[in-house]
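> example.struct
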């Protein structure tokens, strides 16, 4: 078991920690290339050297070399993943420790960061009465951080040892083929998140690392897999999809340039030798290529925004919990760590939201996180999730129906259940925030499943497909609705989705909104933002209400 201490944790250099995986990733890439070369050579060998004991020996040697290279590639990649998780985890724990120590020092404690010695506050003219933080609370916070740091340290050591050559110098053949196969991972989709979490925790560190590397597009979406493991998987998926889409964009632009050049040179017949009308054929292809570029460029820009946020220096750290570029695309980004936060919120967007909307959704989540953190001071950290986890309706009238809300509601129910299953320590205070049609999704989530949230907040809701707050299977005193006076969605929406939550007849709390329009609810320094922050941060009594719920 690790004996890591708080002073040792504080002494870690975050910049150096994040350099640790880089070399291992580079080695893994080189070994992948070498393994591919060995495999190609082995396939070509029978064509040039087919008979005799020497040919058989050469083929056997190439097979063995390929196995060794594959094993070495897997081992180095697993070590790189382990160190990446270590770097992110220790950086977060170090940040938490510094926050706790800073709060304690503000409360009058003296803390020697080099030795860990704690001196209690002095009672005197400048510090009357009991300190704002009790010694028990301080010690419990530091003990929790120490326990998590030691667990991460021991887990990382175990993952490195599991991928280290034995005493004879041989690398174990740990390709994972016999450990976790794709069908086993696929079978976890749609299961109760608690069961998924139990399955995941039952895997060895090596098995978990292999699954993350081999099936990132599956692990990244599994509700019940811890936040940091999902984040690792989705980071791999992010790089894979950026590489693929960038190559497609480059190919489309190159093909367009070739067609335009052929048109100028009058050589279209060389590109379309069987076409009856080369002008018409080239025009159709140019139109198709332009459509591809029109979709690829904003998608890649969205992926760049995600990359900058999860790999940047923004506070709090961000985690990528889902990514899919197919069709309209989906993405889930957490601002803060939901697995350790005392207060967690999921922001569900509405009509017209696609993957390309993720930048704006992350901005709103960041605003909510900052507002809530002010109210949560002294009670723990806050995480807010920008959740584009469903196929939102387009601006074509489909928002009048509830099919998308039902599909999204089922997905939201699973997602919230997953975060509940993986949360560390006491249960988090959970708030679902729905904007526009996103509130309809939340309403459906309470009907198709048991949405395990403590509070529900709506902004600009057209209705939640229920008649009253009581129908949401939650105490109406924990339902909060807001609507700008000029938000037409709250007027027209109820025609399709029942009573608007901001209507007094619905029976929810109604918070004051001082913003205008349908999209201004998170304007910086607004009362609307502050009120939502108070609810998410566990201080609903400090929200400015213009009407109270009907019990």
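> example.seq
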């Amino acid at each position: 078991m690790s004996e890591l201490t708080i002073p040792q944790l504080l002494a870690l250099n975050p910049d150096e920690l994040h350099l640790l995986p880089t070399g291992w990733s580079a080695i893994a890439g080189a070994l992948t290339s070498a393994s591919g070369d060995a495999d190609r050579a082995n396939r070509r060998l029978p064509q040039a050297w087919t008979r005799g004991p020497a040919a058989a020996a050469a083929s056997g040697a190439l097979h063995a070399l390929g196995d060794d290279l594959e094993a070495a590639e897997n081992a180095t990649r697993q070590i790189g993943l382990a160190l990446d998780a270590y770097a992110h985890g220790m950086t977060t724990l170090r940040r938490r420790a510094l926050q706790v120590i800073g709060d304690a020092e503000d409360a009058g404690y003296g803390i020697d960061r080099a030795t860990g010695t704690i001196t209690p506050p002095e009672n005197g003219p400048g510090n009357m009465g009991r300190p704002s933080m009790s010694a028990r609370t301080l010690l419990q916070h530091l003990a929790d951080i120490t326990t998590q740091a030691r667990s991460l340290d021991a887990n990382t050591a175990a993952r490195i040892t599991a991928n280290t050559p034995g005493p004879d110098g041989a690398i174990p053949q740990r390709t994972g083929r016999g450990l976790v196969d794709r069908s086993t991972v696929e079978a976890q989709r749609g299961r109760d998140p608690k069961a998924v979490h139990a399955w995941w925790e039952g895997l060895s560190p090596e098995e978990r690392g292999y699954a993350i590397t081999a099936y990132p597009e599956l692990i990244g979406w599994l509700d019940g897999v811890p936040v940091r493991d999902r984040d690792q998987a989705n980071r791999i998926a992010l790089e894979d999809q950026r590489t693929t889409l960038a190559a497609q964009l480059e190919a489309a632009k190159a093909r367009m340039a070739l067609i335009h050049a052929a048109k100028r040179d009058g050589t279209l017949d060389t590109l379309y030798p069987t076409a009856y009308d080369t002008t018409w054929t080239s025009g159709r292809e140019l139109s198709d290529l332009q459509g591809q570029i029109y979709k690829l460029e904003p998608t890649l820009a969205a992926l760049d925004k995600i990359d900058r946020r999860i790999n940047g220096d923004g506070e709090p750290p961000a985690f990528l919990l889902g990514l899919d570029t197919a069709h309209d695309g989906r993405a889930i980004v957490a601002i803060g760590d939901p697995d350790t936060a005392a207060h967690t919120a999921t922001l569900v967007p509405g009509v017209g939201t696609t993957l390309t909307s993720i930048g704006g959704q992350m901005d709103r989540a960041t605003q909510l996180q900052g507002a809530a953190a002010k109210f949560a001071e002294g009670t723990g950290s806050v995480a807010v999730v920008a959740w584009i986890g469903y196929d939102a309706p387009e601006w074509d009238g489909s928002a009048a129906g509830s099919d998308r809300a039902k599909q999204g509601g089922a997905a939201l129910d699973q997602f919230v259940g997953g975060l509940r299953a993986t949360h560390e320590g006491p249960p988090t205070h959970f708030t679902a925030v729905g904007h526009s049609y996103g509130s309809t999704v939340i309403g459906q989530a309470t009907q198709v499943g048991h949405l395990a949230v403590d509070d529900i907040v709506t902004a600009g809701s057209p209705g939640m497909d229920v008649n009253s707050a009581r129908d949401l299977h939650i105490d109406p005193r924990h339902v909060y609705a807001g609507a700008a006076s000029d938000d037409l969605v709250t007027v027209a929406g109820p025609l399709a989705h029942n009573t608007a939550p901001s209507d007094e007849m619905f029976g929810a709390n109604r918070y004051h909104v001082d913003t205008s329009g349908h999209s201004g609810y998170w304007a910086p320094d607004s009362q609307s933002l502050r009120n939502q922050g108070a609810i998410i941060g566990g201080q609903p009594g400090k929200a400015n209400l213009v009407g109270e719920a009907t019990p």
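> remarks
Residues 124-128, 174-178 have pLDDT under 50 and may be disordered.
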